[in-house]
TrEMBL record:
Signal peptide: 1-26
UniProtKB keywords: Signal
Residue stretches of biased makeup (Low complexity): 45-56
Region annotated Disordered, chain positions: 26-56
PROSITE patterns: PROKAR_LIPOPROTEIN (PS51257)
Protein name per UniProt: AMIN-like domain-containing protein
Keyword Transport (UniProt): no
Organism lineage: Bacteria, Bacillati, Actinomycetota, Actinomycetes, Streptosporangiales
Length: 191
C-alpha cells in the first residue's frame, strides 16, 4: 500500500468513528462544550434490571461441616433491589432463607420487633458469630432509611446457629447466591 492510500484509509476510518460517535454541535454551541464528554451511559445500564421475584424458601444443608464464622454482614442499595452480603471465615454453612411473620431470638425465644412488617429470616447452621473466647464477630448492620430492607437484626448466635432477620414492609421476591474467595452468602431482596 502506498503512503497516500494508507493516509486516505486512516482519514476515512477516523471520519467513520467521529460520525458514529454523535453529531456536530449546533452553530451557537461553543466548541469547548462540544469537546467535553457528557455523562457516560452504557446501553445495558440505561434500563433498570428487575429485582428478584421468587418468594419460596431456600434451604441448603451442610450439617457435617465445621462451623463457619460470620465475620460481617454488609448492606447495599440498588435501583430495584437491596443486597445483603454475609461474610464467612471457613466456608459457607448450611442455610435456610424464608419469609416469616414473627422472629425470635435463638436460645431465649424472645420475640424480635419487626416494626410492623415482615422479615426474611436467614438461619445459618453450623455457624458462629463469636470467637472461641466469646467475643462477637458481628453485632449488627446499619441500614439507611427509605428502601426495601428497613433493618437488619441479629436473631441469634447460639449452639452453632446464627440467625439474621432482614426487616421489610412486606413479602417481596428474593434471590440467594453463594460466592467463594472469600466465602460469602449474597441475598438480594426486591423493593
Amino acid at each position: 500500500m502506498t503512503p497516500f492510500v494508507r493516509a486516505a484509509v486512516a482519514f476515512l476510518a477516523c471520519g467513520a468513528v467521529l460520525i458514529s460517535c454523535g453529531t456536530a454541535p449546533p452553530a451557537d454551541t461553543p466548541a469547548e462544550s462540544a469537546a467535553s464528554p457528557g455523562p457516560a451511559t452504557e446501553p445495558h445500564t440505561a434500563t433498570p434490571v428487575p429485582g428478584p421475584t421468587a418468594t419460596a424458601p431456600v434451604r441448603v444443608e451442610r450439617n457435617d461441616a465445621e462451623p463457619a464464622l460470620v465475620t460481617g454482614v454488609r448492606f447495599g442499595r440498588h435501583p430495584s433491589f437491596d443486597r445483603v452480603v454475609v461474610d464467612f471465615q471457613g466456608g459457607v454453612p448450611g442455610y435456610t432463607v424464608r419469609w416469616v411473620r414473627e422472629a425470635h431470638e435463638e436460645g431465649s425465644g424472645r420475640p424480635i420487633d419487626l416494626k410492623g412488617g415482615r422479615a426474611l429470616h436467614l438461619r445459618l447452621v453450623p455457624a458462629n458469630a463469636h470467637t472461641e473466647d466469646g467475643t462477637p464477630t458481628w453485632n449488627g448492620t446499619t441500614v439507611p432509611a427509605s428502601g426495601g430492607i428497613t433493618g437488619i437484626a441479629k436473631t441469634g448466635d447460639f449452639e452453632g446457629v446464627v440467625g439474621i432477620a432482614l426487616l421489610t414492609a412486606g413479602v417481596t421476591g428474593f434471590k440467594v447466591s453463594e460466592l467463594a474467595a472469600p466465602p460469602r452468602l449474597v441475598v438480594d431482596v426486591a423493593h
